[in-house]
Amino acid sequence: MNHHYPVVIIGGGQAGLAMSWSLTQKNIRHIVLERHQLAWAWRHQRWDNFCLVTPNWQCKLPGFPYDGDDPHGFMLRDDIVAYIERYAQSFNAPLYEGVNVERVTQHADGFALHTSMGTIQAEQVVIAVGNYHRPRFPDIAQQLPQRIVQVHSAEYKSSQQLPKGDVLVVGSAQSGAQIAEDLHLAGRRVHLCVGSAPRVARFYRGRDVVDWLDDMGHYRLTVDNHPLGEDARRKTNHYVTGRDGGRDIDLRAFALQGMQLYGRLLGYQDGKLLTADDLIANLDGADATSKKIKDSIDAWIEQQGLQAPEEQPYQPLWQPEHQPGAVDLANISAIVWAVGFHTDFSWIEAPAFNEKGYPSHTRGVSVQSGLYFLGLPWLWTWGSGRFEGVGEDALWIAKSIEQHARKMAEPEATYVDSRR
């Protein structure tokens, strides 16, 4: 590894590799620095039974679309890692593992990357580390009895790592709902604090809902054209699963099977976790979102004159008889916190962030010249933080990098006084 490069990419996941492939096609010299190892988050921050929630055909890394024999299936965790490994090998990515970038500073000729292997100079830098940086724990986690084992969703592997007894999962977005299902299928008695996360059906009228939405142009909608604008970046993901070939996650069905549901977590008092009286509203809201998506598919089918099997409207399988106001911790042996992550770009010393510390950019091109961001949710489209769309963003940023390099290489114009 040298100590000066035209471009340095920070992050060795699918975003960093997609950026590397794009620069390789343009013969732009660069390296990829990964703090741990290739695809580390997929290896170590996913549970044993984890699988994609989007079908395999949406794996569209540039130059390397899905190469398996089950395009409408859902890759398991180890298969995802293997896919990323094959991608890196396919173009001999200039990847350096085990190099921690501790700080990035800017200077007149670009940037200095202060790493665990020394200082590296770069004319341009791509930050491809996503926005899930530090596991989030609520303040009340420190108040709970020490006998209760507490893990973040990023640390959860399987029911076997948790002590015998009831398990509480806090958070019902993608990870929380799927982990609650994983524990439930393992025979554990599960308690789940349900938030306002929406849900989506896996299949509708004969096809995966993702297939319908792709035909409808949903995944080509840009953040500039989204009704919520940049607020779309803060939306909670719909919960659904690709497990066992894919199916809905219906929390009402889990309740019929013995899972105990509560509203949002509010606080801790006298050995109990207090919960809000919004369980009914949250379940109804999730169902309403699913219905809205189905209605849009119905309208598309009619508009296009398509033939598709009819499907009866969803009928709620279960309604709470009352809304429990607290979780009694007497029988709870473990808690899985599925409440998200903190985003932390404080190690980048450049005027490239808004008042909340989030990157200010246009399609990944930072307001700070020579600095770029890739792999963030809704960086440009729904797929920007996923296999589906990160490649298009990388190709776009590669063009900007090439243009910036050409501009920096141009000799400064000489001023000529026309009066002479």
Account of the 3D structure:
By secondary structure, the chain is of the alpha/beta class. It has two domains: 4-133 and 343-409, FAD/NAD(P)-binding domain, CATH 3.50.50.60; 135-337, 3-Layer(bba) Sandwich (FAD/NAD(P)-binding domain), CATH 3.50.50. 24% of the residues lie in helices and 22% in strands. It has eight helices and 24 strands. It has helices spanning 14-25, 40-44, 77-90, 174-185, 209-215, 251-256, 279-304, 390-409; strands spanning 4-10, 30-34, 60-61, 64-65, 95-97, 101-107, 110-115, 118-127, 134-135, 149-152, 166-170, 190-193, 203-204, 207-208, 260-262, 265-269, 272-275, 326-328, 332-337, 341-342, 348-349, 361-362, 365-366, 371-373. Strands 1, 2, 5, 6, 7, 8, 21 and 24 form an eight-stranded mixed beta sheet that branches. The chain has a five-stranded parallel beta sheet with strand order 10-19-11-12-15. Helix 1 (14-25) packs across helix 8. It is globular and about 75 Å long.
